[in-house]
Amino acid sequence: MIRGVGLAVPEKLLTNSDLEKIVDTTDEWIKTRTGMEVRHIAEEGRDTSDLAAEAVQRALDDAGMTVSDLDAIIVATVTGDMQFPSTACFVQDKLGAKQAAAFDIAAACSGFIYALSIANGLIASGQFRHIAVVGAEILSRITDYEDRATCVLFGDGAGAAIVAPADGSGRGILDTYLRSDGSLHELLYMPGGGTKYPASHKTVDEKYHYIKMEGREVFKYAVTAMGEAAEYILERNGLSGDDVALLIPHQANSRIIEATAKRVKIPPERVFVNIQKYGNTSAASIPIALAEAKQEGRLRPGDLVLLVAFGAGFTWGSALLRF
Ligand code: COA
Question: Which atom of ligand 1 is nearest to the CA of 34?
Fold first, then answer.
């Protein structure tokens, strides 16, 4: 079960009107095509692990637990501090979580659901009791602010959940569903920085260290896959949209969110949307939304919550929680 949630976002803001001054775009285009209005941007010197550690500390506070309770830290990210060690190790060090295992998961925007599924399995196996599952990104550092098709979309932030064994009350992670299709990786990727294209003058000149995306194509796949993942996990558990207290979808585009909700017949008042405030924060979007939903009183103990995401890889998936 999820015992506590927390979020951390940088203070600096990037608004649609700021973007109008950087690339050939308009506030109207961004709002109507994506639903976005503002994103948070990490200040120089602030690392992904800083945001992640803050989010974990807040989630621990929310759970009434301390760092010494943590057996493991899993960070879902595609913008880790370094290629290695894992960002989770930096978080472990910053928190002083001396007895915790630490590792990262790279599943892009689906990363939090992947990490949650792994944490749930590790706890069910009896290996660990308390795991901090974090989604944390500084996407602004891999965004090309000369490319209007991508730079309006992404923001920075982190969210965390403390996952613990079920307490017998029926609350817990009921099911998770994970999928992938690597054959479509070139629709959304960052080619540089790995062993295929190690840093060179050529990779820098050709902007291999920035996000490349075929937005229209990604959009089509995202709508189909998120709808299917939401529908499938409900059916597999003998549930329908009527049973869901809150749908928390990955926040990539308000039109994708609307299509997903429609597919499982969940009305807008039971769909959590904060894309206007943060843009797309990849793996951080769902845990940020979880923490905000709880803060706003939209999540109560015992609520059935449906999470669904789609991202680079492609990867996609869903999770059903009794919060
Ligand atoms: N401002 C103004 N115009 C823009 C623009 C911007 N920031 N970005 C693109 N355009 C233009 C395009 O050049 C195109 O112009 P043209 O018709 O003259 O060629 C037009 O707007 C439509 O572009 P298109 O890419 O078809 O728009 P879209 O409706 O598909 O919206 C996205 C673009 C990126 C918002 C949308 O495709 C999307 O959200 N895709 C999925 C993103 C996603 O989920 N990514 C991460 C997965 S987690």
Answer: 35
286 and 197 together in one domain: yes
- The CATH number for 242's domain is 3.40.47.10
Give me the number of domains the chain comprises.
Answer: 2
For 265, the 3-state DSSP assignment is: coil
Question: Ligand 1, residues 186, 212, 219, 315: which to mutate, most atoms within 8 A of Cβ?
Answer: 219
Tell me: the pLDDT tens digits for 194-245?
Answer: 999 999 999 999 999 999 999 999 999 999 999 999 999 999 999 999 999 9
Bridge partners of residue 101, in order along the sequence: 72
Say yes or no: CB of residue 33 within 6 Å of ligand 1. yes
For ligand 1, say whether the CB of 78 is within 6 Å of any of its atoms: no
DSSP state, residue 195: S
Answer positive or negative: Cα dihedral of 208, 18, 292, 132. Answer: positive
Is 156 found in the same domain as 189?
no
What predicted TM-score, i.e. pTM, was given to this entire model? Answer: 0.97
Give pLDDT tens digits for 240-261.
999 999 999 999 999 999 999 9
The atom number, within ligand 1, closest to the CA of 19 reads 7
Q: Is the CB of 305 under 6 A from ligand 1?
A: no
